[in-house]
# Entry
Amino acid sequence: MLSEKMIKALNEQINAEMYSAYFYLAMNAYFESKSLAGFSHWMRMQAQEEMLHAMKLYDYVNGCGGQVVLHAIAKPPAQWHSPREVFADVLSHEQKVTGLINNLMNLALDERDHATSGFLQWFIAEQVEEEAHVGAVVDKLKLIGADSSGLFVLDQELAKRLPPTVQ
Ligand code: FEO
# Structure
């Protein structure tokens, strides 16, 4: 049984994950406009993954007998100056999401809600992975600098990202 406070916090996280999907879809659109097909593909897969995160939370709230309440999704940005700037934004966004997940876990622990803290453990591990993957792309973009052939190689690498699955 979830407390009202926990249901509210989980509903807010559903919104944060939905916003993440929107945020990455905006980046997908940006890369489409720049004809960077691999970067564009990576962002589309990322947006899909965020929807799966939102639905994992959604199903959990429903499964525990709580009511999901959907909130408005904020407008994401539309313009960036470079792929490097985009990925710097991705990393800082994911760091922010990690903070939100940690806050949710803190609430579950405060409430001695062991079911929710067990459920959230998956998200804690997921954030470690997300930050590592995105951080590696940020590092590569720093090395590439203004070298367009390096950007082309990275674009091909990002094109290989597989569709997301969430257990
Ligand atoms: Fe759902 Fe990228 O965190």
